């Protein structure tokens, strides 16, 4: 369908891609992976035709229809869901809009009081209706009706404005618009950002049913495992294709790194031996010619690059935690609401020392609000949500904490404001462990990427020792190596942690307790994410069994009532 051949892309700031070669075939589901700044979005824009290559070729087989869902998807909040979905058919949408305006004009007082004007409107209406039919407008309307239940909307909800729905539901609308175009190739850039677990799972299942080829950029490892059949990794501007999902790619990558490391060490040993020979006999009367010959061969030999595993990787550990009492958080009979929406109604929870709790629930269920209530940043309508009494020292990372950074300040100065007594070596060492090194530490914060800002915000939080971490979406905008860094640090952390995250892989690695927010209550599962999933599956089976029993009982009672009525009717006849 499409092939990138030795593609390079150079910006004024430097070379992003230098040798990218891979292809997309019909039915492929490809995950693009790489650290922030590796050029994933650049490749996506090149495929979509939004960026030109500096050199190389983009070979298209025929004219594949390409649809691109970017991170900031485009929906009109003032349209109804049905109207917005119909925008997928631009020509038909324009004609339909003209038809609607014309119909309003025909219903106006001006038309009622001016018969010649009304007659002209009726003629125009006929012309537009013929045009709408010619472009199969009524069939397109039927396609919109058909896709509504597939993306989770009822006919009644389709009449509501787009602005009435959450970001996750707006993503469904944007995806529905794209799929109505019947693309050959679907491009998705971080589609799971800001989606709750339930919506991510819906998206996975929906994509698995699509016939289009799919290329997706995502840092969600579980999503990549479920959706992708190939992984294209970009490192040092060069791409490499791996068959299988993300977990398979990781295994292949480790084997490849081991082999590359062994080859690199052998070559380095050989180079050292040859160089020692050259240095020893360069000035020798009898062996200088041989030494120079070896030197030329050495210069021509292709050098094996050290595997990336040997380069600087993000790495940190939380500072030692002061000891706290047994109970670190108390929630007692908590009731809280926003307007007409009740978030918590008599909720109870006690969090003990050593608990690492992940809060699970759909967007809007109150996860972030609960953290703010615990931290005392909001007051509950009723009940208690508070920290423990005995030496609980919290460290709070808000969902959008990176946005609170001073964008005009230099990165290293931002750190010095918090730790003025540190040496530059100490500050740069900490920043380096977050992959903020070399020139990046002297950049203005505003010129950092989203991932770099998030890592800087995390680094600032580390400077204060605490025994209760309160983390609201800490992995947003982090690339996979940075997520792995945070996971390992949390596993080794001696204190307690409260975590809100939609990253199932992250949760499954760091949480030892799960709390589900459901119907205003806090339901504690005393196990990790796998245990939670098992219990939820059991609950679903029990609910289905109860429903079947209820249906059978309702049927039995209905049959009994019918028999009684027949018997009564027969007695009356007699």
Q: How would you characterize this protein structure?
A:
By secondary structure, the protein is an alpha/beta fold. The chain folds into six domains: 1-65 and 183-244, 3-Layer(aba) Sandwich (Rossmann fold); 82-165, no CATH class; 261-305, no CATH class; 338-393 and 466-527, Rossmann fold (3-Layer(aba) Sandwich), CATH 3.40.50; 397-464, no CATH class; 534-574. 44% of the residues lie in helices and 21% in strands. It is built from 18 helices and 18 strands. The strands form four sheets. It has a six-stranded mixed sheet, with helices on both faces. A six-stranded mixed sheet has the order 14-15-16-12-17-18, with helices on both faces. A hairpin with a 2-residue loop joins strand 10 (327-338) and strand 11 (341-352). Helix 3 (90-106) runs antiparallel to helix 5 (115-134) and helix 10 (246-281) packs antiparallel against helix 11 (288-300). The longest helix is centred in the C-terminal third of the chain and has 45 residues, at 529-573. The protein starts with a strand and ends with a helix.
């Amino acid at each position: 369908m499409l092939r990138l051949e030795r593609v390079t892309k150079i910006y004024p700031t430097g070379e992003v891609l230098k040798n990218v070669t891979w292809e997309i075939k019909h039915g492929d589901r490809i995950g693009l992976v790489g650290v922030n700044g590796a050029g994933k979005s650049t490749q996506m824009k090149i495929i979509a035709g939004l960026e030109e290559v500096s050199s190389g070729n983009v070979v298209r087989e025929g004219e594949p229809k390409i649809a691109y869902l970017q991170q900031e998807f485009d929906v009109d909040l003032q349209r109804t869901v049905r109207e917005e979905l119909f925008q997928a058919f631009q020509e038909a949408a324009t004609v339909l809009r003209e038809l609607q305006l014309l119909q309003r004009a025909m219903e106006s007082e001006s038309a009622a009081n001016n018969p010649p004007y009304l007659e002209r409107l009726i003629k125009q209406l006929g012309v537009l209706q013929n045009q709408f039919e010619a472009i199969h407008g009524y069939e397109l309307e039927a396609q919109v009706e058909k896709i509504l239940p597939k993306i989770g909307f009822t006919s009644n909800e389709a009449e509501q404005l787009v602005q009435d729905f959450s970001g996750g539901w707006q993503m469904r609308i944007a995806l529905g618009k794209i799929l109505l175009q019947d693309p050959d190739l679907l491009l998705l850039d971080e589609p799971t950002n800001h989606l709750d677990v339930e919506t991510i799972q819906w998206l996975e299942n929906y994509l698995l049913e699509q016939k289009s080829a799919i290329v997706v950029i995502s840092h969600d490892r579980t999503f990549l495992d479920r959706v992708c059949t190939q992984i294209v990794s970009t490192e040092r501007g060069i791409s490499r294709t791996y068959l299988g999902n993300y977990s398979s790619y990781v295994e292949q990558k480790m084997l490849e790194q081991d082999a590359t490391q062994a080859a690199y060490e052998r070559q380095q040993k050989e180079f050292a031996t040859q160089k020692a020979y050259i240095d020893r006999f360069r000035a020798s009367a009898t062996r200088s010619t041989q030494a120079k010959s070896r030197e030329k061969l050495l210069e021509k030999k292709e050098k094996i690059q050290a595997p990336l595993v040997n380069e600087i990787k993000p790495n940190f550990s939380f500072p030692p935690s002061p000891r706290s009492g047994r109970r670190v958080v108390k929630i007692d009979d908590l009731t809280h609401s926003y307007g007409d929406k009740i978030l918590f109604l008599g909720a109870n929870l006690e969090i003990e020392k050593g608990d690492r709790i992940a809060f699970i629930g759909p967007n809007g269920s109150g996860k972030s609000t609960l953290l703010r209530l615990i931290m005392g940043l909001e007051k509950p309508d009723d009940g208690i949500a508070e920290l423990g009494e005995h030496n609980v020292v919290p460290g709070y990372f808000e969902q959008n904490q990176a946005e609170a950074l001073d964008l005009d300040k230099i990165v290293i100065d931002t750190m010095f404001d918090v730790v003025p007594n540190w040496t530059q070596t100490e500050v740069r060492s900490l920043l380096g462990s977050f992959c903020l090194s070399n020139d990046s530490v002297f950049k203005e914060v505003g010129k950092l990427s989203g991932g770099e800002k998030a890592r800087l915000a995390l680094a600032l939080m580390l400077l204060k020792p605490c025994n209760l971490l309160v983390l609201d979406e800490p992995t947003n905008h982090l690339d996979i190596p940075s997520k792995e860094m945070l996971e390992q640090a949390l596993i080794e952390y001696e204190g307690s942690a409260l975590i809100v995250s939609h990253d199932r892989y992250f949760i499954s690695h760091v949480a030892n307790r799960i709390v589900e927010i459901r119907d205003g209550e806090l339901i504690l599962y005393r196990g990790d994410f796998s245990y939670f999933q098992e219990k939820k599956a059991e609950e679903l089976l029990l609910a289905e069994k109860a429903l079947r029993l209820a249906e059978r009982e309702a049927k039995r009672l209905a049959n009994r009532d019918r028999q009684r009525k027949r018997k009564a009717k027969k007695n009356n006849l007699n």
